[in-house]
Amino acid sequence: IGNSERKLALSNIAVAYVAFLIGTFCGLIQVFMRNDRLELPAWLDYYQVLTAHGVLLALIYTTFFIYGFLITGMSKSLGSFGPKVRLWSWVGFFITLIGTTWATVEIISGRASVLYTFYAPLKASGWFYVALALLIVGTWVMSFALIGHYVQWRRKNKGVLSPLFAYMTMATFALWIISCLGVVGAVLFQYIPWAFGFVDTINVELSRSLFWYFGHPLVYFWLLPAYMAWYLVIPKLVGTKVFSDSLARLSFLLFILFSIPVGFHHQLGEPGVTDFWKFLQVTLTFMVVIPTLMTAFSLFAVFETSGRQKGAKGLFGWVGKLPWKDIRFTSLFIAMLFFIPGGAGGIINASFQLNEFIHNTLWVVGHFHITVGAPVAMTFMGITFWLIPYLTGRTLTGTTKKLAFVQIASWSIGMLLMSTAQHVLGLLGAPRRTQYSHYNDNPTVLGWFDGFFSNTATIAIGGTILFFSAMLLIVIVLRLWFLEPRSAGQDMYAEFPLAESDTSATPKWLENWWIWIGIAIALIIIAYAIPITHLIQDAPPGSKGFINW
Ligand code: HAS
Questions:
Q1: Where are the transmembrane segments (predicted)?
Q2: Is residue 342 situated within a structural domain?
């Protein structure tokens, strides 16, 4: 890929890992505070640290890493960027960086302790919301630059299906751009006027609904790049092709359709939205499970095909033929394993009645650590092991490879301990988003901390192992960036492993974006138009309307 794309991708990855470093440190502070083992200095409080932890890891690490990965893959699969694409990608990167830095300064200085969901009536300084708006605009500029690259390629290759990596990138951007409309609406028309004092009140329920219109697809914005690695990198590593090109494309399309009109499943316990609309969105939530099951089917098919090609016999003989010693593979495989309980937990969350039981408990914290914190984060770690060498021209050698195994193993153990304890404590009723660990010594509550997995000490042990693993990852990143030897020619660790995908049987209509975006918009209107109208019309006096003046 071109030099400019290399620098651009590396710049994104560098910001991602700076955010990762600070964010994981905040995580360490977090687990000890909940365990009542740490007193913070007066200028720092629990919510400041929790906000920094959530924003830096869930929003900033993921976003910058995703762009680093997608920029590299788009350049690899469609060719070098033209001057305009290059220029706008850099412009987008700098806008996102300014937004990010500004938002982080607001959080660290204590002016935005509103958590990553920034629910009203918690109020941050107006500049925090301006910074968030910049962050999103920056990602849009980068996305549109890459969409421009794709459009140019399609003009030059009329009637040809685009390479699978580029297609999946476009689906991810479609999902991202449509979903951001909700949060952009809330930030521009509700939070900014309210936080700067132009209006006195805010329509709280509307702001939450607009947030979750964005917030749920946000989790698939994290997940889809991981799926890209599962669909395209894994078959290459196990020595075979993508199982089915059309299945892969269809599963990404289904995410565009079903990941957005489902935000109410985060608000099942809230007033203001009638059960009918909640039920409709819960039903659509179950539809979004289908593309994941398709992905699991496709990956098992890849594992089995490659195993059989290597002579595996019997029902599970192929397991022994998988390349376990290749850390690029092992890290992704463990990431996928975590998604089995992670996704099962998601189904529990989305079940209307069961949600009452787990909502606002530590269970939800356990859930998102074994979805975004394990399947997504560990896939990004697995990608890091070859993406940085690919971009810096270095390679992954003996010591760093061993460190990478230790890092993945320790992340898995830490996450297993921490998230299991979070799930169990959540079932026992321990609330989320609170610094109080002993709940005023309430006798019923003290019983929560008896067992090994119903104990905040286990969370703290898991969190400490995770922090150790995170620091190891930073060491690996630095070694891959600056210290590892230059790769000599054909080096497997300095390659972008992209599997072949046979498009001969793929129907062309799968790449007619207007049809799919049109259906997605229709579904969004069906699921949201009436309840949002009600939220505006029925708002309590003093908070009527969108902007409330
Ligand atoms: Fe979730 C809350 C429902 C998936 C992240 N979720 C959250 C929050 C986050 C989050 C961050 O319905 C907290 C938000 C907050 O701060 O309040 N979630 C779901 C459902 C799914 C789901 C139905 N979530 C994710 C993913 C996330 C993520 C993915 C991040 C990346 N979630 C909810 C709900 C809430 C929620 C409610 C609100 C709770 C509340 O009340 O507050 C589905 O997408 C899950 C589908 C997945 C499966 C698993 C099948 C998997 C298999 C294995 C996969 C293996 C493959 C490879 C593909 C059904 C079968 C095969 C190879 C191997 C080696 C196995």
A1: 11-33, 53-75, 87-108, 128-152, 164-192, 212-234, 246-264, 284-303, 329-348, 368-391, 403-425, 459-482, 513-536
A2: yes
Q: Give the CB-side neighbour count of residue 358, counting CA atoms within 13 A.
A: 24
In this structure, which residue's CA is closest to atom 32 in ligand 1? 346
For the stretch 39-55, pLDDT in tens is 888 888 899 999 999 99
- Ligand 1, atom 56, residue with closest C-alpha: 296
Any atom of ligand 1 within 6 Å of the Cβ of 299? yes
404 lies in which domain range?
323-502
The verdict on the CB of residue 301 being under 6 Å from ligand 1 is no
Task: Output the residue whose Cα is nearest ligand 1's atom 19.
Answer: 346
Nearest CA to ligand 1 atom 20: 346
Query: DSSP string spanning 130-142?
Result: HHHHHHHHHHHHH
Q: State how far the Cα of 374 lies from the Cα of 332, in Å rounded to an integer.
A: 10
The finding on whether 346 has its CB within 6 A of some atom of ligand 1 is: yes
Give me ligand 1 centre to Cα 346, in Å.
4
Position 87 in a domain: no
Phi/psi for 394 (5° steps) reads: -100, -170
Q: How many distinct structural domains can be found in the chain?
A: 1
Residue 549: is its pLDDT beyond 60?
no
Q: pLDDT tens-digit profile of 437-495?
A: 666 666 666 566 678 888 888 999 999 999 999 999 999 999 999 999 888 766 777 78
Ligand 1 centroid to residue 274 C-alpha, Å:
24
394 forms beta bridges with 486
Burial code of 269-278, b = ≥16 C-beta within 10 A, e = fewer?
eeebbeeebb
Q: How many residues does this entry show for the chain?
A: 549
The owner of tokens 């509103």 is 114
**Strands of 140-189, DSSP E:** none
Q: Is the pTM of this model over 0.90?
A: yes
Q: Is residue 208 part of a domain?
A: no
CATH code (residue 415): 1.20.210.10
Q: What is the distance in A from the centroid of ligand 1 to the CA of 115?
A: 20
The number of the ligand 1 atom at minimal distance from the alpha carbon of 226 is 31
The reply to whether 405 falls in a domain is yes
Closest Cα to atom 53 of ligand 1: 340
| Atom number of ligand 1 nearest to Cα 227 | 58
The Cα–Cα gap between 211 and 205 comes to 10
ipTM over 0.90: yes
Q: What is the whole-number distance in angstroms between the Cα of residue 342 and the centre of ligand 1? A: 6
